[in-house]
Amino acid sequence: MLIEPATGARITFMLGITNIIGLFLVFFSCRCLMGSSLQKRLWQHDWYKKFYNAHCHYWKLFFISVLIHAVFAIIYFTFRARFAFVKQRFFSSPPR
Length: 96
Prior knowledge:
With 96 residues, the protein is mainly α.
């Protein structure tokens, strides 16, 4: 295997958390929120204007995170199940 199963599960979990954070970053910097009372209040702060200007970068982070998360999930859950079947089928001791 390329990576240990426990490490694959941890990486998949951490990338899932990164996906959630990326989703919130994209959502709260979205131009679709313009006109909402929340964004009107946030727009009064300079830090939010800088945050809002980085919206395209948040999309890049989000897409990369989702892509890597999907790859690790497929590797970890698909191949792990196949290797367990092969190991059980061909490498276990015969019944007595």
